[in-house]
């Protein structure tokens, strides 16, 4: 019996799992680990959303199979969100599907549209599903940069000229996880023109659409006229409404891609639990003060992180969006590598971060730091890191 499964062989070890295992072991020993490695919100959803979940769950008929496409009210709620936030008109029947978080949506669409041997353009570094959703489906990955500068466009053109077979899909993710980079609408206008010229589908991951700072709202690719001819976009309630564990996301846009995604999903799931979908409607349709409240909270945490870590001797660029900082390794420790540095920080400073190499080889030299602890804990992390850096001969700004 062959136990060398084809798709499992194509998946490398999940390197971040090594740090996660160390963190779990340290906590089991009773050590107080400040976990900045996971993108797991530490805030509760709005009370009216929890109340709606409980209300609908009390109904005897709410516990059967739901709909893999998502209940109609939730699809309408997402279409209304796109109208008021981006000015984009969506048909809830043919251009919106509810997913089990944006991660499942990306993976299911990859399964739907990928043939073995296809080539996919994916950013590097990037959130793992952007690459491995397609690798699991049998595709090959051609990496392109994350930073949206002229080098990015040169690499896209180079990929189209020299990659065989020609790429069929381009994944974009702005605000980026892990790098936090952002783009403006002019970037998307150029991207849509490029995709139409080369006959390439665009898959846009917009999971951090509402976590933007310094008064610069993030755009949607679907704001570009004609973008729905070539693009689908994924969003999530996870960070916007602190509903990560609820697993509610959406794919919207091109009807052909949406139809393909719905067909695959109809075979593999019946959609999220109906009371969860009803509560998601309450999140999208109800009071939106939580969105601004969360944005301001993460903004404040960002500023505390940058200020306190800087005083500890580790200068970190302020992310313009998302709930992560993409931090270069401190001077003097760059040769250590991101994995070893993350292990040392956990062992000697009791702070968990995610090694950049876990997001692709171009992530080496960085770590991802989540804004998922309160300000007091962030300052404690900075004090711990200061002591660690001093033990390595790196003095802080105040030394």
How does this structure look, described?
- The chain is of the alpha/beta class and 399 residues long.
- It is built from 13 helices and twelve strands.
- The strands form three sheets. A seven-stranded mixed sheet has the order 2-8-7-6-5-3-4, with helices on both faces. It has a three-stranded antiparallel sheet with strand order 9-12-11.
- Strand 3, helix 6 and strand 4 form a beta-alpha-beta unit.
- The longest helix has 23 residues, at 289-311.
Q: Indicate the proportion of strand residues.
A: 5-15%
| Class by SSE composition | alpha/beta
Largest sheet: 7 strands, mixed
Number of helices: 13
Please bin the fraction of helical residues: 40-55%
Order of strands, main sheet, comes to: 2-8-7-6-5-3-4
Distance between the termini: 63 Å
Spell the H/E element sequence. Answer: HHEHHEHEHEHEHEEEHHHEHEEEH
Radius of gyration using CA atoms only: 21 Å
| Average of the residue pLDDT scores | 93
Count of DSSP strands: 12
